[in-house]
């Protein structure tokens, strides 16, 4: 088993998936989330690291994205994912971010506990705009997501995984991924934007 490492990263977060807004996986107030809208969840997640380090390695200014899919009825460790890491990362930064987002570095990045199959870890041109209300993701020619409009709702909404304790803004969003074996495209489904902080 890989040893845990000291790290801390924080910044902005935006995701989109094929559920209907408000995504039923979300926590609404004190009510925990449940099953996805259609029983299968196809998703694209993105992180813009504004501040961060892994041991002595500076990670500020880098982007990470994860595309994947899961089925509600397959069990607990159910996600099949690609991890995309900023092409501008040095070899040391790439390795550090790989360890963090695979869960090998320990800490509170709970999303990695769900990975049953990592399809690949790739350097990519990850272009993120996390400006409120116009968030979007572009990853080479492989994946994209964008906000169509914010979804109006009352009360606090937070994401189940990751960053479940960070409230954010629900949206109606488009998303698509074309990176075999993942292939999906959806219009006007759900999105969610917030901030994040992970550490060990």
TrEMBL record:
**Domain of life, per the record?**
Bacteria
Q: Quote the protein name from its UniProt record.
A: DUF1326 domain-containing protein
């Amino acid at each position: 088993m890989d040893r845990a490492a000291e790290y801390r990263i924080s910044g902005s977060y935006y995701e989109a998936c094929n559920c209907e807004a408000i995504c039923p996986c979300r926590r609404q107030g004190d009510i925990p989330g449940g099953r996805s809208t259609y029983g299968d969840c196809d998703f694209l997640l993105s992180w813009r690291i504004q501040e961060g380090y892994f041991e002595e390695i500076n990670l500020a200014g880098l982007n990470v994205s994860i595309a994947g899919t899961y089925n509600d009825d397959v069990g607990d460790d159910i996600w099949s994912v690609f991890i995309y890491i900023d092409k501008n990362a040095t070899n040391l930064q790439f390795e550090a971010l790989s360890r963090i987002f695979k869960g090998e570095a320990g800490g509170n990045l709970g999303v990695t506990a769900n990975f049953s199959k990592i399809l690949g870890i790739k350097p990519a041109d990850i272009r993120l705009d996390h400006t409120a209300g116009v968030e979007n993701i572009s990853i080479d020619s492989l994946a994209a997501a964008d906000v169509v409009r914010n979804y109006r709702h009352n009360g606090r909404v937070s994401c189940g995984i990751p960053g479940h304790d960070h409230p954010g803004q629900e949206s109606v969003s488009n998303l698509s991924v074309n990176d075999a074996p993942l292939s999906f495209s959806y219009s006007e489904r759900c999105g969610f934007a917030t901030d994040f902080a992970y550490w060990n």
